Amino acid sequence: MKRTCRGRGRIRAGLLVCAAVALQLFAGAAAKADDGYRLWLRYDPLPANVVKGYRARVSSIVVQGESPTLDAVRTELVEGCAGLLGSSVPLAEKVERDGALVVGTPQSSPLINGLKLERELTALGPEGFRIRSVKLGGRSATVIASRGETGALYGAFHFLRLMQTEQPVGNLDVSQRPRLRLRVLDHWDNLDGTVERGYAGRSLWDWDALPGRVDPRLRDYARADASVGINGSVLNNVNADAKSLSAEYLRKTKAVADALRPYGVRVYLSARFSAPMELDGLKTADPLDPEVAGWWKRKADEIYKLIPDFGGFLVKANSEGQPGPRTYGRDHVDGANMLAAGLAPHGGVVIWRAFVYDAKPGYDRAAAAYEQLQPFDGRFAPNVLLQVKNGAIDFQPREPFHPLFGAMPKTQMMLEAQITQEYLGHSNHLVFLAPAWREVLDSDTRAEGPGSTVARVLDGSLFGQRLTGMAGVANTGSDRNWTGHHFGQANWYAFGRLAWNPDTPPRQIADEWIKMTFTHDPKAVAAVTRIMLESHEAVVDYMTPLGLHHIMWGGHHYGPAPWENKFERADWNPVYYHKADAAGLGFDRTATGSNAVAQYSPAVRAVFGDPNAVPEKYLLWFHHVPWDRRMRSGRTLWDELALDYQRGVDWVRAARKSWDALSGVIDAERHAAVAKKLEIQERDAVAWRDACLLYFQTFSKRRLPAGVERPQKTLAEYMAESILDEDSRQ
Ligand code: GCU
Question: Cα–Cα distance between 128 and 150 in angstroms, integer?
Fold first, then answer.
């Protein structure tokens, strides 16, 4: 990615010089092998015939007005257009020729003000935008307008994306607004620079150097976010250090906020519930204690003095050892609403996490969040959102949708997805997550009859919630390519696109991303699209087919360990989740078992609770079934399981071949890096298949069916090795 041109003033020769400099930087970058730093904002020259068509439409850039965000618009368009079209496009103050690109808001731009778009723009909101091909003073122009400057920036990125993906820009009439209000990345970054569940190097925030030195890379981070409409970043780990809220660290956070603000990205912080005790020696953090409430109110005032657009607090309370209101005999509502009261005067929100479960012997962890939170429906303050993971356990390769979706009609709820691949092969495996997230978004909760999808719970159209949102646990880090695996970038991209519009098809997302990131070659695009769209199903096949879950090594969660039973807490052990025995396999969550299925609405419960009706991809999630159970294919459960594992391995081998065939189409550096990762992925897939089948075979006592390869090692070897931990990262 390029360096910024931070020129001020009107239409400055400076920016043009900057554009020229940028072009040179670009040229250098294109000639070299590509290290992936530029993400999907590469702006390499388009083919000559395509450029010819665009040139007439993009002959000058007119961004009237002055502000950091308008500067960002100018810089992005100047650099983007120059890169894509292969020569610079001048900035102008007015429309002097055909082909002007006019960008801004009615407030900033007299030209846009003259178009009388107020009504439409008001309907689209400050982040929505309108792009239209119009005539201005007899000249053809493209107008990118919004009520807010961030909307204008999003429109500029949209326009650039049209060109990057070689779509027509001649006769545009586009209106977009984000369907969700909060589109937030949750960074699980620690103050010491490590990242919990991070597989792409160290934290992007250099806390030691801040606030004195702000890494210029933060601008490129913000650009990438804005290009897909991400408008918030929680900077620190949900397992929060109280120090993040100290005066010293707030000054550091302010410096980050200042760097991200021009791109419409607001900062949030994870708040440790016991911070008043740790930072200021209060005797308690009881949310009903007036001193405690006063402390949080003053803390909020202090933060907003420094960061007037601070987003709010994300809170992991009473979960996995974190303190929370229950520590003091209070409940979730007491805790969330007390924090919310401090933030409300400033417009901040509390994002209260629903990832809560106790260490109770004999209970089903999948039922815990609903048990603890559903009774509080309707009691949270208006500036509180409940952040619910996609499924009830923990970002497994596949989970049925969380039963809280649809079950709290009077509570503002946002989805928490995990972009970082904690349970999905870290940054070693190629897994495109848009299809997995689509599966959740499209799940029908049946809360208000058919069509009550999770997407409609989230966007407010089902229950009318005012605050809406989606969060993704970030996969970014200090690695040169940001995400460790080049294809990890696609998940960052996909998260933003889905948070903007939860109905976006994964195929479209993949197609856009590939064209922007790798190649326009139609055969290559088709091949890579196929790999991406199939990848999630394949990973489920070789890790946790048919509804299996949480059978990876404890701690690092990387390779297979279905035998593991060493943790003191039963629900941290794989054996707790698969319940393999001589009779069969799977967790009985029906009335004969934990009855967690009763948390779903009656129509859903009827399907999930019936082993003959449940989609087989969730069979072992809800049912303990015999090894000889007949599956819909006519095969026994055992045979089907074994063949699913094999299919996963076969897929990785086929994907490697397809990828190898693209050498020469994809630049050598990234091609080789991905090939290397795919090699690891094949090794891991084989180990998953072998280890799981050998282990389950000790219960099933059945032979592997025809078509399944003989294991490469013995079960004892797999159990002894833990070969697949993070050390295998290369
Ligand atoms: C998972 C993950 C933890 C994380 C937790 C959470 O359990 O392994 O590292 O802290 O989720 O979401 O809070």
Answer: 8
pLDDT tens by residue, 2-29: 333 333 333 333 333 333 334 333 333 3
| Residue owning the nearest CA to atom 11 of ligand 1 | 394
Token reading at 461: 């159209």
Distance CA 708, CA 713 (A): 14
Q: What is the CA radius of gyration of the chain?
A: 26
Asked whether the bond before 435 is cis by omega within 30 degrees of 0, the reply is no
38-71 pLDDT, tens digit each: 999 999 999 999 999 999 999 999 999 999 999 9
Supply the residue whose CA is at minimum distance from atom 7 of ligand 1.
Answer: 394
Would you state the structure tokens that stand for residue 541, as one six-digit string? 């096949």
Q: Judge whether 62 and 81 are in contact, CB under 8 Å.
A: no
CA of 197 to the centre of ligand 1 (A): 8
Contacts of 301 (CB under 8 A, 6+ apart): 342, 346
> What pLDDT digit, counting tens, does each position of 333-379 carry?
999 999 999 999 999 999 999 999 887 777 899 999 999 999 999 99
Residues for the chain: how many in total?
730
Helix (H) or strand (E) holding 75: helix 68-85
CA distances, 400 to each of 364, 395, 588, 642 (Å): 15, 11, 14, 22
User: Do 126 and 150 form a contact (C-beta atoms < 8 A)?
Assistant: yes
Residue holding tokens 């943790």? 567
Q: Indicate the DSSP class of residue 365.
A: G
Ligand 1 touching residue 196 (CB < 6 A): yes
- What Å distances lie between residue 396 and 316, 408, 418, 549, CA to CA? 19, 23, 10, 6
Bridge-based pairing state of the strands 129-136 and 173-176: antiparallel
Whether residue 320 lies in the annotated active site:
yes
Euclidean distance between CA atoms 430 and 488, whole angstroms: 7
Is residue 358 flagged as an active site residue?
Answer: no
Output the CA 388–ligand 1 centroid distance in Å.
Answer: 13
Which of 320, 415, 726 has most ligand 1 atoms within 8 Å of its beta carbon, as the pocket-test mutant? 320
Structure tokens at 95: 């429309």
